[in-house]
Fold this sequence. Notes:
By secondary structure, the protein is mainly β. The chain is 9% helix and 62% strand. The radius of gyration is 18 Å and the shape is elongated. The protein starts with a helix and ends in a 7-residue tail after the last strand. The model is unreliable at 9-18 (pLDDT under 50).
Amino acid sequence: MNRLTCLFVLLVVAMLAGCSSHPPSAAQFMNVKINENKFGVALGVGGSARAGDIYSGRSHIDVDYIDEEGSANLDLSLLFRLDHGVFGFSFEDISLRTIFGGRSQYIGVQGWAGIGSAEKGHDKNAMPFSGGLMLIEEFPIYDNLRVGASEHISRNAYTVDENCGGLGIPSTYEYGEFGAGAYLAFKGVSLEFRYGREIDEPRNRFYFMINYAFMNGESSK
């Protein structure tokens, strides 16, 4: 196989290896600068920590399932901008998501989508899909200092270790969530807090995120 084929295979394997997916950073999306009629790219790196009603290595469904949502993950993103449109990719650890949407100076709309394992632990008939939609409002304070707020609705996912006759099979558990957040950004650095509430269960999650954007969409055609 050539290099392009190998890369494609690795991406597919990463997507199907058990998907971990939570709402991506609002600040990272808005860090892609607007520059009409020019093409730009922004590379982002950061991390996210979660608290609240999360499951980390606890089997709360059945003895044959071990939930490992985890309390932290690494975030990487590669976003492209053309005029006001933004699109690209985001990794939560090794789980790949597509990012798409658009932004103006004060408003952004971010969408994302990904797939998990074909074998689903909790509901065999459910589609292993995660994704969501986020509305973002941003308010400049000074030239390089910005504050923002976000509201989202999403279908989140995390890896479940399914024990089938002693064999560990990676699968995913998906759940619906709605929530809101706020962030503070200085140049390419951002600090972000987000609250999420499960739609079907009385569970609350609290997200603490830090991100840094390289290049910031400054390149042109």
